[in-house]
Amino acid sequence: MKTSRFNLVVAFAALAAMCLTAQAQNKVVYTGEIAKKVIGYNGPTPLNITINNGKIAKIEVLDNEESPRYLEKATSKIFPQFIGKTVSEALKLKVDAVTGATYTSNALLENIRLGLQQAQKNAVKSGKKTSKKAGKNVIKKKHRRR
Fold it and tell me: Looking at domain 24-141, which of 3.90.1690, 3.40.50, 3.90.1010, 3.90.550 is its CATH number?
């Protein structure tokens, strides 16, 4: 009986630790505030950009006034180009606007750029900067001068 309780407590603690680790690795950047002046054809186009383990996992369009037809046309061509890229890689991409949905796609691209810049700035502020060395991600801590 004591062994069963102990195993249950250990399993629960392991599950809690995994949940906390997963939350720490996922980051969602909301562009509604930082890009409120970015206007598509019919108004702002806020996004949620999910970054998981340093790579863009998902980009979601939030409530907006864009035409669903043009929004779908733009997102289906633009978003897949960013998925799986690191923030640094994604910021270097040169993605063209989608013909027939130019205003919407330019707004989405600008929102993505601003959101990724914010994510990059927050990573540097937290004292960690990632770089690639010998094909592996290495975390460097910023050192303060005294």
Answer: 3.90.1010
